[in-house]
Amino acid sequence: MDKQWRQRFLDFLTGKKSLPLTYDPFFKRIFHPDIHQDRLESLISSLLGVEVKIVGILPNEDSMLSGESFVVMDLLVQISGGGLCAVEIQKQPYAFSEERLSCYSADLLMRQYARVRGERGKDFTYLDIKKVYVIVIYEKSSRAFSSCPEHYVHYGKTIFDTRLDMELLQEYCLVSLDVFRNFQYHKPHNRQTAWLSLLATEMLADADAWIRIYPWLEEIYQEIAMLRTKPGEVLGMYSEMIRTLDHNTLKFIVEELQQEVVEERTAKEKALAEIEELKKRLAALEKTPST
Questions:
Q1: CA separation for the pair 227, 234 (Å, rounded)
Q2: Per-residue pLDDT tens over the stretch 82-105
């Protein structure tokens, strides 16, 4: 471990800090649907605004995106009614986030299509395809989110400018944990605020205030505290987390460099186009007879 994570580990063992629940091994310890299905259902329901029931966990290995994930937590579940819901937590905003979200959602839809069509055979109809939801929780949100600092949860779906009443199947929920932490306005007292506070709270002294508002969080914090008696297990979870971070950091650097190349190429092409336009105007002026 580097100095930062070593200190975070020691602060947990001495009761100063909670676990970093926005990382895969820790999140799944608290929310894994095999053990705590009710918690994950409650978290997803609070973000989507509808009550969901998880009926199964799906593997991520059959994704059509060839493993191009840049996340610190990734969980895919099938919910009641047959729809799919992917929950991701990202440490930092990655390049091409809009394109990535669109591709991930399309991947979920096509995976559902392939599975359902295979199960239904000749009886398949497009009515068998249900909604897919992509939930992304950002530890650090991108510049795009700064345009609406009064919101930390953004829910989106396709709508038509004519108010055409067609319900398409891809929906999104984007959460800015950094905005939630620094939110200057009143936070409503509801399940959504409770779950986001659990994910965002680092100091256990702050957790006491949330427990007073949401007493049911105490059970989870007690479960976290009990892990102090298993330092070897927690150390293994930290090691797994750091391996994922190192891998994703390298991929992030590559992607950032790729974005810089694209931006530089675009700027160069724009500059060349402007030069050509100026040359044309200059040539036209030179052809104009003087008076």
A1: 7
A2: 888 988 888 766 666 788 888 889
Task: Looking at 14-61, list the stretches that DSSP marks H as alpha helix, in order from N- to C-terminal side.
Answer: 24-31, 33-48
Percent of the chain with pLDDT over 70: 85
Average pLDDT over residues 193-204: 94
Overall residue count recorded for the chain in this entry: 291
Q: Residue 187 and residue 69: Cα distance in Å, rounded?
A: 32
- Alpha-carbon gap, residue 38 to 27, rounded angstroms: 14
Q: For residue 72, what pLDDT is reported?
A: 43
pTM for the full predicted model: 0.77
Please, what's the b/e burial string for 256-279 (b: 16 or more CB within 10 A of its CB; e: otherwise)?
A: eeeeeeeeeeeeeeeeeeeeeeee
Q: How far is residue 73's CA from residue 241's CA, in Å, rounded to a whole number?
A: 10
**Rounded to an integer, what distance in angstroms lies between the CA atom of residue 90 and that of residue 135?**
11
d(CA 89, CA 243): 16
Closest listed residue to residue 77, CA positions, set 25, 33, 24: 33
